[in-house]
């Protein structure tokens, strides 16, 4: 697993909130290259919704928001907003490419329960 280099846009230092596996970092890097842009970062957020109450959102973003926590994984920047950070502290993002599963997965120790489809948690 790559070791993150953490920077923040705020004065206070916060612990790393999300871990990106090497496989996931390679996939994110490939997807950003397909977009043909070098200003995009992977933003991970938690929003209300889903059958369990909270839903993960992963998307590419060029914005910088006040309080963002930015972690670099070998050239792939992962951004978490300050409201989502407590829900994502210690979460690991991986990428599966198997016959039984394909896509990004999130292993979140803060999730007390999740729905059957794994799309939302509480």
UniProtKB/TrEMBL annotation:
Transmembrane segments: none annotated. GO terms for molecular function: 2 iron, 2 sulfur cluster binding; 4 iron, 4 sulfur cluster binding; iron ion binding. It holds the Pfam family Fe-S_biosyn. It comes from the Bacteria. Coiled coil: none annotated. Residues 19-119 form the Core domain. Gene3D superfamilies: HesB-like domain. GO terms for biological process: iron-sulfur cluster assembly. PANTHER family: IRON-SULFUR CLUSTER ASSEMBLY 2 HOMOLOG, MITOCHONDRIAL. This is Iron-sulfur cluster assembly accessory protein.
